[in-house]
Amino acid sequence: MIKTEEFSADYCPKSNTQKPMTKFENCDESSQAGSTYPPVYLGQSVALLTKHGKETPLGEVLGAGLGCRIQHVSDYDTDQFGTFTRDIARVGSQLEAARAKARMGMKLSGLSIGLASEGAFGPDPVSFMLPHNLELLLWIDAGLGIEVIATASGNTNFSHKTVSAWDEAKLFAESAGFPEHYLIVRPDDQHHPQFRKGLSNWDEFNGALEWALSLSSAGKVFIETDMRAFANPTRMLTIRRAAAALVQKLHSRCPACAAPGFANSGVIRGLPCEDCGQPTEQARADIIACVRCTHQILVNRDRQFAAAGNCDYCNP
Ligand SMILES: [Zn+2]
Ligand SMILES: [Zn+2]
After folding, report:
1. pTM of the model
2. What is the CA(5)–ligand 1 centre distance, in A?
3. How many angstroms is it from 157 CA to the middle of ligand 2?
4. Is residue 52 within 8 Å of 81, Cβ to Cβ?
């Protein structure tokens, strides 16, 4: 059972001003940028362990949004946490990988705040048709003992093709947004241990194709998109959007303990059916929870009833 607490009379996470809240549901959980507290990360240094150029977009968005300074930690090979080229498998989940990177950056820099970015690619979870990119950002503040997670998802050029001639290779490259989006080439198939990555112009790509063909036993070349951040402007945009979401979350402070990251953490299902009133699987409220203390509030959705089509009784 979820414990709920009403908003205190003078707090609305949507508003910048201390304004009495009379109607609970007027507070839209999607916009919690407002805060009645002083900025918490202004002038603070944040460790970021990356070697794929993410320090630029993250430094820009978080610097502008929070007033913090990103300290780029580069004297560590992040490929040890896993690579997109599969030569080193990622250990654990996307979140666990991000946590390991953030902790390592904090350790190497001696800073108490760490940030890490981790991307995942696969089929669109709704249509299973188009490739999909989920970017996760993890913010660790060891002083406060909190972790704040922000994500953004979007389209991606993530794809691969096995070819045997230049014409096919050229068509694939064009469809993948080459040369702005870099490519990786291997002989034979995706398991070949040798590869050329970071290919960023047509001459280089053509040379890599000839090289791979000369090494292939079957006259085949495996081409895939290079998903490292600096090699993929589409991914860079999604990372920027995740950073903007993180800024918004960190500006939202817990009304009980003032910790940053007071944000949407789940939903309550059971929106009643419009015909019979039985609870459905539709969400009736959002849970806004603190990442540090147990304080949480429920924000009711605008809709009071679910369509009968969603009801197990009316539409089994
Ligand atoms: Zn019903
Ligand atoms: Zn709290």
Report:
1. 0.80
2. 29
3. 40
4. no
